[in-house]
Amino acid sequence: MPATRGPTTEPDVPSGATDVIVVRSLTKSYDGVAVVDHIDLTVREGEVFGILGPNGAGKTTALEMIEAMRPIDSGTALVDGIDVAKHPQKVRSIIGIQLQSSAFFERVTLTEQIRMFAAFYGAKADPDELLAAVDLTEKAKSYPEKLSGGQRQRFSIATALINTPRVLFLDEPTTGLDPQARRHLWDLIRDIRNRGITVVLTSHYMEEAQTLCDRLAIMDTGRIIAMDTPAQMVADLLDRGFHKEVTAERADLEDVYIDLTGKELRD
Predict the structure, then answer these.
(1) Beta bridge partners of 218
(2) Is 199 helix (H, G, I), strand (E, B) or coil?
(3) Global pTM value
(4) Which terminus of the chain faces fewer neighbouring Cβ atoms within 10 Å, N or C?
């Protein structure tokens, strides 16, 4: 039985930090069962915030409410000060969403698709600039059906950046990717964060979450059971007396694989 924590507290907010997402008592129920059960969280401007949890924990439902993709039963969610329930279209206009399986027009080139999506948003977007940002310049005239898994993920992120979002939501962005593609996508996420875009992601890869995320929320059975920086979560676990018999390794098998096969993408 995993150890549980009491009410979660967040680390001190750095001077000048702004909360770009504020969620209070957010709730969603189906057939009388709370799938998301009165959760509170804040996401700070310019950070990478991760939401972890086993399948069925409620993390996708929670994100879909914050993204104005699913009705809220009770509680509030504000994105950049906008009430999601009252102004869903305003929220959608300032966020970008990269889904785990994005559907594209298969016989339309990447450049043409970006122009189409930009027209949907009523936004001005430079296809060459967006494709360069995700290392797909050479695929500008290609069709999505010709892309590898990693290339499709990167193109999905490019389309999510068309409207220059305040917040980018990524749903398990590296699922199914090989080590080179996964680490390249990590670099891309850092670049996006460094451009001032807040990133909220879900992941089942603990190394990925620990490497990328400034702070994490862990969900289970509809509730947030821990929220803090990855380092503080590890420290709290050790303070509770956790100990495992391991020999610290200076490298792991993935490091060996990358060293032998190279860091270059195999697109």
Answers:
(1) 52, 226
(2) strand
(3) 0.86
(4) N
